[in-house]
Fold this protein.
Amino acid sequence: MKKFVFATNNRHKLEEVEAIIGEKIEILSLKDIGCEADIPETADTLEGNALQKARYVYERYHCDCFADDTGLEVEALDGAPGVYSARYAGDAHNSEANLRKLLHEMEGMTNRRARFRTVFALILNGKEHLFEGIVNGEITPTRRGTSGFGYDPVFVPDGYQQTFAEMGDALKNKISHRALGVQKLCKFLNTL
Ligand code: IMP
């Protein structure tokens, strides 16, 4: 069976990806390969960060691997918080503070268009490949719902009335930016 390291220790992400990727491919986490490092994400694009994480693993562990990076891009904020989504309210990776800052910045704004964008970087036999998943939608004026994580309580994807946090993980994981990115990655792996 083909094996890939997914450069994450985020259990939610691992489960989401494993569910889509199916049984023909084995996914190992960073923990599974004994990597305890907090891999740097210092690039100024999602593509750069995803590649940085995948290269970190490839260079040290010499195995096929992939990594992802996600950002929420708000039209009226010129694409912010974007690649800085995790650190929008400071370096503490505090989702609650990030959410509060976003709602505050957007107070009174009528253009609420936004998108979630995920980039997957795959390194296979030393060659790099990028895959992108995008979900367009709107930022709500107040938070709604309790499931999911991060900016989920304020994002309503196009075609739905509920925020990602109101619709629950099962539906969100079917239509999410990450799901779309993984589907492209899987499609590619299945052509090998
Ligand atoms: P990362 O890709 O895990 O580094 O995520 C970057 C930032 O975007 C973090 O603040 C996450 O909370 C947020 N984020 C990533 N994916 C999602 C999602 O599916 N829903 C809501 N927020 C997300």
